[in-house]
């Protein structure tokens, strides 16, 4: 699906960049060439950096839902387009639109306090000490795994399935599959449990067993909450994040190609 901008004149573009020199140099050239709109009034935000900068930009504009077009000036750049500063207005107008829905994480800590956070890539639970974590997994209130002893566990969106999830030997999930990847990190017991694919409509709860002895932290993208005793995760369909990709290099194509890499 291509983008449709109501503004009939030149697009109002806001540029953001990481602190890396290549990103800052591109920022200077692009703002001199195309101008710099107020990010809160722009038709589109162009993010210059890597995937980390793209995630920060998406989080910063969650409420407004402005389309984000990334150009890779970082290291990986899986969520970004190739760097090309020519005909930027035309490229953005012709870009393909991808809508992502984040995961909403609600944590309960040992002191009883709660905290919510959103994740575009994944929610991960990680042991805080040398002791392995012990976790109980419930799906829609039904216990599915009584006890998982592991270094951690993560639940990833399709967009995040090629990131930490893939490094933890989890499956790559196509964008239109309608599923989330639940992947253990260095599981000890049950040793052969490799995770699960879950419908994106489910609510997932993780209960931390022996939390005093085996403390666990929960991380939604880059928001960390330590000493949790329970973590609830579900997809938040009320929020839609719009990414723009060049037609010849869409996110769906990248996810598909990733599955055939040696």
Automatic annotation (TrEMBL):
The active site is at residue 51. Pfam families: NAD_kinase (PF01513), NAD_kinase_C (PF20143). It is an enzyme of class 2 (transferase). Its EC number is 2.7.1.23. NAD(+) binds at residues 51-52, 121-122, 151, 159, 162-167. GO terms for molecular function: ATP binding; metal ion binding; NAD binding; NAD+ kinase activity. InterPro entries: ATP-NAD_kinase_N (IPR017438), ATP-NAD_kinase_PpnK-typ_C (IPR017437), NAD/diacylglycerol_kinase_sf (IPR016064), NADK (IPR002504). It is found in: Cytoplasm. GO terms for biological process: NAD+ metabolic process; NADP+ biosynthetic process. It catalyses: NAD(+) + ATP = ADP + NADP(+) + H(+). One of its GO terms (cellular component) is cytoplasm. Its cofactor is a divalent metal cation. Keywords: ATP-binding, Cytoplasm, Kinase, NAD, NADP, Nucleotide-binding, Transferase. It comes from the Bacteria. PANTHER family: NAD KINASE. Belongs to the NAD kinase family. Involved in the regulation of the intracellular balance of NAD and NADP, and is a key enzyme in the biosynthesis of NADP. Catalyzes specifically the phosphorylation on 2'-hydroxyl of the adenosine moiety of NAD to yield NADP. This is NAD kinase. The gene is nadK.
